[in-house]
């Protein structure tokens, strides 16, 4: 397929709109929180999210959570409580309207699943607030070979926030434990004890944020620093220390503003199989810019200087990328934007395991360069209750990565390796979101992402779907019943199987994923509720990654208690 034809399609799609909006549900004492923004394909953390327009309303906001059980590498059941961490700014002011600071949820289901979650928060009206969050979500059995494909996730975290005149200080400390098994082997010809195929991840996080809270400061600023330590069952460790600094300086009031963004990431990685010596992988980024605001027209002009240092691959280089974003606002408050961008995208062992947990030991980790990206888009209100957000991009990557089964395994566990395309890869992306709330009892959200990658050093864009879509609906059926229904579609992908015939690599096409999920909550009172969650209602054991099918139809029932 020629790239030119995709450029034509891209231009034809420029009239397609998309976004998200919150509306009220009258005087109902129900508040369940969700902030939804368009996310580009998981395999690429290289694009900016579609910018969203802040909305204000005098009505009570409808903040019920969409189910958000997107198909991933490991089957998970995720829930969003109606009591939130005091330091989560995205959910600030959206805690449970009944005012109960403590929350507990417990449930069980098939596959031997047990779920428990709690939030314990201090009085949110004080200058100093803190909260404790605990979670345990485990399935004893999985889709293949019983307990050999089970998994579990446990978390404990403490958050705090202190407000003073002119500044805000936030901190968090958390520990996370993940356990799962490499069950991609052929169960008809091989048997394994689950302890021999176990993988565990121990993750410790600590972070501090300091930011200005003055309404009209001479200099606005924020600084964040975070320490993350990861250790797995295969004797790999990764210690990351990341710091981000942002500041704005008004030059001409309400017209010209200078901005500076700086980031520093220091990473130490070791792997016992690949050699126990600690290797450094660092990245530094500085991005000064100017924002010019002329009412209907806005321009942001800047430059990024990015240095990456990698002892593993002996890389030490600095690259520069100009950045431009031009925005035009119509009298009807429709925004049209266009721009140019580039960057070095930081990849880590932690980020790769988040995306694909089935990685082999001593996997190679390299950064991806977005050499250039041209983008255009629009956002706005089409009419009452319907907002849209749309973005289309064309650009080039160097070092785009793909997942494939490692072909040198002798135990046939089918662990994954990461391959990097050292040539430039042209890409096209079209991303859109609609959010429509015609009535106070119903809200619907539609997102869609289209991707095209021009063929480079790899025959196929392995495990990178060309289309992802989601339709989410929330219904307030009555004063006591709330439900939400989500439908996901992920287009077919390709994988390479090195074990099909005489150890000759062959491409395998994975079917498209269709995933339907539903949740129903019955409110006995403002403090007590009963819930039922149905996952993968269609019942297909789809494979986001080849040889690792997901659970079929599964359910969870339980109770919510607020105190």
Explained architecture:
The structure is a single chain. The protein has 2 helices and 24 strands. The protein is globular. The chain has 563 residues and is mainly β. The chain has a 22-stranded antiparallel beta barrel. The chain has a two-stranded antiparallel ribbon with strand order 20-21. The chain has helices at residues 3-12, 349-355, and strands spanning 102-109, 113-121, 128-139, 151-164, 167-181, 198-212, 220-232, 236-252, 256-271, 275-294, 297-310, 315-329, 335-345, 368-383, 386-405, 416-439, 442-453, 467-476, 481-490, 493-501, 504-510, 513-523, 528-535, 554-562. Residues 1-70 and 75-98 have low confidence and may be disordered.
């Amino acid at each position: 397929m020629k790239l030119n034809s995709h450029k034509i399609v891209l231009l034809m799609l420029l009239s397609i709109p998309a976004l998200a909006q919150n509306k009220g549900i009258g005087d109902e004492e129900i508040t369940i929180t969700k902030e939804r923004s368009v996310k580009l394909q998981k395999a690429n953390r290289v694009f900016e999210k579609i910018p969203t327009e802040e909305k204000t309303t005098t009505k009570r906001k409808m903040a019920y959570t969409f189910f958000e059980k997107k198909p991933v590498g490991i089957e998970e059941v995720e829930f969003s409580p109606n009591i939130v961490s005091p330091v989560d700014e995205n959910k600030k002011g959206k805690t449970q309207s009944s005012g109960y600071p403590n929350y507990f949820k417990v449930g069980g289901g098939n596959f031997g699943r047990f779920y428990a979650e709690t939030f314990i928060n201090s009085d949110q009206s004080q200058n100093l607030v803190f909260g404790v969050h605990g979670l345990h979500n485990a399935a004893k059995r999985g889709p293949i070979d019983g307990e050999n494909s089970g998994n579990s996730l446990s978390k404990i975290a403490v958050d705090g926030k202190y407000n003073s005149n002119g500044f805000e200080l936030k901190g968090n400390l958390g520990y996370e434990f993940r356990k799962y098994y490499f069950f991609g082997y052929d169960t008809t010809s091989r048997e394994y004890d689950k302890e021999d195929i176990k993988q565990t991840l121990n993750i410790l996080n600590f972070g501090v944020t300091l930011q200005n809270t003055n309404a009209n400061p001479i200099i606005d600023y924020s600084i964040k620093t975070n320490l993350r330590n990861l250790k797995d069952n295969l004797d790999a460790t990764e210690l990351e220390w990341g710091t981000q600094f942002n500041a704005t300086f008004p030059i001409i009031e309400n017209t010209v503003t200078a901005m500076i963004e700086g980031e520093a990431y220091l990473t130490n990685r070791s792997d016992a199989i690949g050699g126990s010596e600690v290797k450094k992988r660092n990245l530094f980024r500085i991005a000064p810019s100017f924002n010019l605001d002329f009412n209907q027209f806005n321009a942001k002009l800047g430059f990024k200087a990015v240095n990456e240092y990698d002892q593993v691959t002996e890389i030490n280089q600095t690259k520069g990328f100009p950045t431009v974003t031009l925005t035009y606002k119509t009298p009807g408050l429709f925004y049209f934007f266009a721009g140019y961008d580039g960057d070095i995208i930081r990849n880590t062992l932690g980020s790769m395991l988040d995306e694909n947990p089935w990685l082999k030991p001593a996997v190679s980790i390299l950064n991806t360069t977005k050499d250039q990206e041209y983008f255009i888009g629009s956002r706005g209100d089409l009419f009452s209750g319907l907002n849209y957000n749309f973005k289309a991009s064309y650009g080039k990557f160097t070092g785009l990565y793909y997942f494939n089964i490692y072909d040198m395994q002798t135990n046939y566990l089918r662990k994954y390796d990461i391959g990097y395309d050292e040539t430039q890869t042209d890409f096209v992306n079209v991303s859109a979101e609609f959010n429509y709330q015609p009535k106070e009892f119903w809200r619907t959200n539609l997102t869609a992402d289209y991707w095209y990658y021009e063929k480079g050093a790899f025959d196929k864009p392995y495990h990178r779907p060309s289309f992802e879509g989601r339709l989410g609906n929330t219904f307030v059926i009555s004063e006591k019943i709330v439900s939400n229904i989500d439908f996901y579609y992920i287009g077919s992908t390709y994988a390479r199987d090195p074990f099909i015939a005489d150890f000759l690599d062959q491409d395998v096409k994975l079917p498209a994923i269709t995933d339907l999920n539903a949740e129903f909550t019955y409110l006995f009172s403002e403090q007590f509720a009963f819930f039922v969650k149905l996952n993968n209602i269609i019942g297909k054991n789809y494979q986001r990654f080849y040889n690792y099918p997901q659970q079929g139809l599964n359910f969870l029932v339980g109770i919510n208690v607020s105190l």
